[in-house]
Specification:
Order of helices and strands: EHHEEHEHEHEHEHEHHHHHEEEEH
Pathway: Amino-acid biosynthesis; L-methionine biosynthesis via de novo pathway; L-homoserine from L-aspartate: step 3/3; Amino-acid biosynthesis; L-threonine biosynthesis; L-threonine from L-aspartate: step 3/5
CATH superfamily of the largest domain: NAD(P)-binding Rossmann-like Domain
Family: Belongs to the homoserine dehydrogenase family.
Structural class: alpha/beta
CATH architecture of the largest domain: 3-Layer(aba) Sandwich
CATH class of the largest domain: Alpha Beta
Number of strands: 12
Strand order of the largest sheet: 4-3-2-1-5-6-7
Distance between the termini: 14 Å
Strand content: 15-25%
CATH topology of the largest domain: Rossmann fold
Bound molecules: NADPH dihydro-nicotinamide-adenine-dinucleotide phosphate, ligand LTNE7NMQ
Oligomer: single chain
Number of domains: 2
Organism: Thalassobacillus cyri
Pfam families: ELFV_dehydrog (PF00208), Homoserine_dh (PF00742)
Number of helices: 13
Protein name: Homoserine dehydrogenase
Helix content: 25-40%
Length: about 350
């Protein structure tokens, strides 16, 4: 049995809870993943803990109908109001789902949440980019030392396996360059502008669809893509780069006129992140680039993302799929949970 505590319970957390509810039987019978949600702790939506397991349907009903999980029915063993640290340290959860806001300056409080979990020997799955972009080396060593699992597939390209796919299936190659559209919100805005819609309307729609960060400045100024470039550099290229050292320009000054001028020249603007290895040195950048309309990356539209790995043996390999979205990102946590279960079964953790 895997006892789960959610730290943060916004769109992505609720999406995973719904998947666990809907696929319960399949997850148990096909993957041996018996997941029980024992706790939720969210900044404004309250906290509830029941060591023997919460009823997910009633939990989702409470948060969706009243905005607060503390309206979950009282009963024997039900405790309310524990903060996120108390939930991590004092609950009987052995798996922490860390889905609080990504903070692009400090990575907090998510870094402290991961540290506290690993120090207690508890595992973490997260879609929060802060801990991976800013503290990958420290946290991965701490997790290993304490026999804990750390999954973060959804930090780059949501449920599209941009991290696990190259590690598992491109091993043996040297990856010389990684280039891609790594932010769903900005790609959605650019393609809406290509249809004649305004920047402001498109951004508003991206917020409503759950693509944008809590503070969408992080999307439109390129900071979110910069974090993802830092993750790719540290995790896939083996060279940590501080995200502050990655030159970054976003799309906030993009006008309809610029988008239309590009279309008239058979070109399209795309916000590209690039990580390159040259003579053993890894560099990264994020900026809008003008691409010919027949460039495969120009054909990527909406919140879809794409990533191109330049491999020395296998050649260029491109992966495309959702870069944002609640169900898709909920799925990225599920695949980490399934991986955790597989490793547990093989007694690796
Ligand atoms: N949405 C997407 O498509 C994707 C999101 N991500 C990442 O996944 C994470 C979750 O995203 P999403 O669910 O969309 O974001 P939301 O803004 O919907 O949810 C985040 C939740 O975390 C809560 N929270 C913030 N700080 C704390 C804290 N210190 N303790 C407890 N709870 C806290 C917020 O509380 P409240 O609002 O109640 O104040 C909110 O409910 C983010 O880090 C995001 O960058 C990654 C890939 C794709
Ligand atoms: N806000 C991000 C969500 C996923 O990381 C995006 O738009 O890509």
């Amino acid at each position: 049995m895997t006892k789960i505590a959610f730290v943060g319970f916004g769109g992505v957390g609720q999406a995973l809870a719904e998947i666990l509810l809907e696929r319960k039987v399949h997850l148990e019978s096909s993957y041996g993943l018996e997941a029980e949600v024992v706790a939720v702790s969210d900044m404004m939506k309250g906290a509830v803990y029941q060591p023997d397991g919460l009823d997910i349907e009633q939990l989702l009903e409470a948060v969706r109908e009243t905005g607060n999980v503390e309206n979950y029915p009282d009963g024997p063993g039900v405790t309310k109001g524990l903060d996120s640290m108390a939930t991590i340290q004092q609950s009987n959860a052995d798996m922490i789902v860390e889905v609080t806001f990504t903070d692009v300056e400090t990575g907090q409080p998510a870094i402290d949440h991961c540290r506290a979990a690993f120090e207690k020997g508890k595992s973490v799955v997260t879609t929060n980019k802060g801990p991976v972009a800013l503290a990958y080396e420290e946290l991965s060593k701490l997790a290993e030392k304490n026999g804990a699992y750390w999954g973060f597939e959804g930090t780059v390209m949501s449920g599209t396996p941009a991290l696990r796919m190259p590690v598992a299936t491109l091993a043996g190659n040297e990856i010389k360059e990684i280039k891609g559209i790594l932010n769903g919100t900005t790609n959605y805005i650019l393609t809406e502008m290509e249809k004649g819609n305004s920047y402001e309307t498109a951004l508003q729609k991206a917020k409503e669809l759950g693509y944008a960060e809590a503070d969408p400045t992080n999307d439109v100024e390129g900071y979110d893509a910069r974090y993802k470039a830092a993750i790719l550099s540290g995790y896939l290229m083996g060279t940590p780069i501080s995200s502050k050292d990655i030159p970054c320009k976003g799309i906030s000054d993009m006008t309809l006129e610029m988008v239309n001028d590009a279309l008239e020249q058979n070109k399209k603007w795309r916000l590209l992140a690039q990580v390159k290895k040259e003579n053993g040195t890894v560099t990264a950048s994020v900026e809008p680039q003008l691409l010919d309309t027949d460039d495969p990356l120009a054909g990527v539209t909406g919140a879809t993302n794409a990533i191109l790995y330049e491999c020395d043996l296998a050649g260029p390999i491109m992966l495309t799929g959702a870069g944002a979205g609640l169900k898709e990102t909920g799925f990225s946590l599920l695949i980490d949970l399934i991986d955790y279960q597989r490793q547990k079964t093989m007694e690796k953790i």
